[in-house]
Amino acid sequence: MAVVGAQGARTWQSLISSLVAGRDLTAQDCAWAMARVMAGEAPAVPLAGFLVALRAKGETVEELSGLADEMLAHAVPLTLPPAAGPAEAAVDIVGTGGDRSVTGTSTVNISTMAALVVAGAGRTVVKHGNRAASSLCGSADLLEELGVRLDLPPARVGELAGEVGITFAFARVFHPAFRHAAEARSGLGVPTAFNVLGPMTNPGRPGAAAVGVADARLAPLVAGVLVGRGTRALVFRGDDGLDELTTSGPSRAWRAGAAGTVEEVVVDPAALDLPPSSLSDLAGGDAPHNAAIARAVLAGKPGPVRDAVLLNAAAALVAADGLHGDLHDDLRAQLAVAAASVDSGAAAAVLERWVAATGS
């Protein structure tokens, strides 16, 4: 049942009161809240109260869907050209960030490197990302350091998907209205539902996604939103707190189950013959530091970072191509594809083409 105020209209007070009472909101209630944010009509105090009350109650799939769908509806459009193939066939590989607060370690940009590997394997990648928030180097920071220009008009961003096989939807460009939430969020000091919206609001609307979520509480809910849309999604979180499939131990993964449900499975790197690592093996630094590591991985350097990149690239390939059965079997097959992308030089060639195509 939708929340309305005394005069029959939704208000911040009515939504917050309902949340404080422990009642779930509808998708329409949350869409109303996000619409106010997008219009610049959400005062910082009630918006902060709404986010904290929503977190305290515990978010639902319907509530996250309402927020994400409304945010996506206000995004700057990103259209893929015919050369890129249909958006349904494209894939995103992205993490929510926030794992540094859990692990105390800022890791290298695993998903960004994995995106290049996936593109080198011939899949169209539409990566959504931003600058660093809680980490030392975000996906946008790394790509700029590698020579990819990001200050491009949306039409050109779309064209690159066809010319290069990969493109980057810079969140601050495609979601400019989300800046209106900055004041409320900056004063809270705690993560909220807004921290996990990125992977659910890719303006290119790819049909597949491999998503890392650092917040164990929200990971299955993000999977529920994506599966509910019909996205071929594989959502995961390392048991070590990483928003990646980790090689330091098992990870939890969520994927579509029977009748639109979300199924949880365990991914064990040992079962994939990947040697164990530690978080320190995956530690990163600033953009120049992480760029040097990325170039070494793309050049074929073996070791824990390569293993983690290939594992996460395999997850994106599984999402892109579809789940066919046992997840370990699917990942094992795609690990070979990811390794070939690197060892053949295809992944490095994608980066070279991307830098050249952006004129950097």
Automatic annotation (TrEMBL):
Anthranilate 2 binds at R185. Anthranilate 1 binds at G95, N130. Mg(2+) 2 binds at D243, E244. Belongs to the anthranilate phosphoribosyltransferase family. Its EC number is 2.4.2.18. SUPFAM superfamilies: Nucleoside phosphorylase/phosphoribosyltransferase catalytic domain, Nucleoside phosphorylase/phosphoribosyltransferase N-terminal domain. Transmembrane segments: none annotated. Keywords: Amino-acid biosynthesis, Aromatic amino acid biosynthesis, Glycosyltransferase, Magnesium, Metal-binding, Transferase, Tryptophan biosynthesis. GO terms for cellular component: cytosol. Pathway: Amino-acid biosynthesis; L-tryptophan biosynthesis; L-tryptophan from chorismate: step 2/5. Its cofactor is Mg(2+). Signal peptide: none annotated. Catalyzes the transfer of the phosphoribosyl group of 5-phosphorylribose-1-pyrophosphate (PRPP) to anthranilate to yield N-(5'-phosphoribosyl)-anthranilate (PRA). InterPro entries: Anthranilate_Pribosyl_Tfrase, Glycosyl_Trfase_fam3, Glycosyl_Trfase_fam3_N_dom, Glycosyl_Trfase_fam3_N_dom_sf, Nuc_phospho_transferase. Homodimer. Residues 14-75 form the Glycosyl transferase family 3 N-terminal domain. Binds 2 magnesium ions per monomer. It comes from Quadrisphaera granulorum. GO terms for molecular function: anthranilate phosphoribosyltransferase activity; magnesium ion binding. Mg(2+) 1 binds at S111, E244. This is Anthranilate phosphoribosyltransferase. Residues 89-347 form the Glycosyl transferase family domain. 5-phospho-alpha-D-ribose 1-diphosphate binds at residues 95, 98-99, 107, 109-112, 127-135, 139. GO terms for biological process: L-tryptophan biosynthetic process. It catalyses: N-(5-phospho-beta-D-ribosyl)anthranilate + diphosphate = 5-phospho-alpha-D-ribose 1-diphosphate + anthranilate.
